[in-house]
Specification:
5 strands; 3-stranded antiparallel beta sheet; single chain; two-stranded antiparallel sheet
């Protein structure tokens, strides 16, 4: 829903396209509702219990605040598997007789190189697995509210996006009806990437 004046409005309706139930909502009302729902849901999600919402928040927050480290962390297990596969290939080739005869003199060097690559990949993966994103503010409603107050509009949007996948807003029961967020807003909370 784009903004139009003091309201959010149905995008299709705003563009002059047909919409069976064009919705609009006052910006101040819907933003306050979404903010309260967000603070409540995020601060009550249990970090230690592995709450799916908090796992999603952690994944998205890490990607937001440390994108390079997040990408490296995701790639590290693949590098370990590739190095393990290379060592296994050497062993299988040796068993098939590929390194019999003249090729045999190269086998010890190739094994040493493959094992060194595996060791380095494993060390890298171990080092990166120790990198944890700080989720302290998401575990405490007061800290979360303070972070919100200190944030500019782009960061506020990012903070909402770490926990919210999308929000569907429906039409009011009648024109001019007071805003009822529980009745009109359906918030789809973020889920972990692994699911």
């Amino acid at each position: 829903m784009p903004t139009s004046g003091r309201s959010y409005v149905c995008n299709a309706h705003a563009m002059g396209k047909p919409c069976p139930a064009p919705a609009s909502a006052m910006r101040a009302r819907i933003e306050e509702y979404v903010y309260r729902e967000w603070v409540g849901a995020v601060s009550s999600a249990d970090v230690d219990a592995g709450d799916p919402l908090m796992i999603a928040v952690a994944e998205r927050w890490a990607a937001l605040v440390a994108p390079e480290e997040t990408e490296e962390t995701q790639e590290a297990p693949g590098a370990v598997k590739a190095a393990e596969a290379a060592v296994e290939r050497l062993a299988n080739d040796r068993a098939k007789g590929l390194y019999d005869g003249a090729m045999g003199k190269y086998f010890p060097r190739l094994v040493a190189e493959a094992e060194e690559t595996l060791r380095e990949a494993q060390e890298r993966a171990d080092a990166l697995s120790g990198n944890h994103v700080d989720l302290t503010m998401f575990d405490d409603a007061n800290m979360l509210e303070e972070a919100w107050e200190a944030a500019g509009l782009p960061m506020r949007r990012d903070l909402l996006r770490v926990a919210i996948e999308k929000i569907m807003v429906t039409q009011a029961v009648r024109r001019g009806a007071p805003f009822d967020g529980d009745a009109r807003c359906d918030i789809e909370w973020a889920t972990p990437e692994a699911e």
